[in-house]
Amino acid sequence: MKRLLTFLLPIFLIFSAAAEEWRSDAHLCAITLPNNEPWQFGNATRLPSGEMIFSAANMEDKQSVSVIVIPDFPTNNVLGQAAISRFSEMLTAMGFQTKKKTQIEWLGRPFVEIIGERPNDASGQQVLVTRAAIVEKKAYLVTTFARGDESRLEDERFMRVLKTFRFLEPNQKQLTGPSPFMRYYRAGYVVCLIVMLVLMFAFFIMYIRTRRRH
C-alpha cells in the first residue's frame, strides 16, 4: 500500500497544483496565481468598510494575497489624507503598522504603494505591500504579505502574484473566452487519471498474486 501511495502522491499534487485565473465581473478586475505552486483560494469576506473580494494563501511559504474593494469612496485623491487614513485603518485591522507610502504609476493609473509590518510575534516578523487606487468611486487595495522584512520587496517571487492584478474593460466580460491553456489542463487531467487507474490495477494484480503464493 505504501508503494501505491508513493506512486499516487505526485499525481494528487498535479491535480491540486492546477490553477485558474480569478476574475470579478462585478468589480472588473482579475488576478492570476502560479499554476505550479500550492495556492489555495479563500472566501469573499465582508469588512466593516468594504469587502475582501479575493484571497489566497500559499500552503508552502504561508504568503497571502488579497483584493479589497471599498465602495462609495469619499475622494478621488489617492494620496489625500482622507484616502491614506482609510487605507491605514484597513491595514491596522489586519494587524499591520504603516511604515511608508509612495505614489507610483501602475496599470496606467496613479496608485499609492504602502509598506507595512507586523511586529515580531509567535509567527515571526511579517512584511506587507499594498497597492491602492481609486476607480469610479471605488477604492481597490491589492495586498500581499509574508514572513520577512522590507528587503523582501526586492524579491520578484514575493511580488509575482500582486503584479498579475489588472483591471478589466467593461466589455471584456463578453469578449474573454476560456483560457488558451485549458485544453492542456484537461489533457493533463486525463493522462493523470489513466496513469492512476493503471497503477491501481497493477497494484491489485500484484497483491492478489502475492497472496496466492503464500
Describe the largest sheet: 8 strands, antiparallel
Content of β-strand: 25-35%
- Number of helices, counting only DSSP H or I runs of 4 residues or more: 5
Query: Stretches where pLDDT falls below 50 for ≥5 residues?
Result: 1-19, 174-182
Category from helices, strands and their pairing? alpha+beta
The rough form would be described as elongated
Terminal-residue CA separation: 18 Å
Series of secondary-structure elements, N-terminal to C-terminal: HEEEEEEHEEEEHEHH
Describe the structure.
With 214 residues, this protein is an alpha+beta fold. Helix content is 32%, strand content 33%. The chain is built from five helices and eleven strands, in the order αββββββαββββαβαα. It has helices spanning 2-17, 81-93, 156-159, 172-175, 182-213; strands spanning 22-24, 29-31, 39-41, 45-47, 50-58, 64-70, 97-106, 109-118, 126-135, 138-147, 166-167. The strands form two sheets. Strands 3, 4, 5, 6, 7, 8, 9 and 10 form an eight-stranded antiparallel sheet that branches. The chain has a three-stranded antiparallel sheet with strand order 1-2-11, with no helix packed on it. Helix 1 (2-17) runs antiparallel to helix 5. The longest helix has 32 residues, at 182-213. It is elongated and about 80 Å long. The protein starts with a helix and ends with a helix.
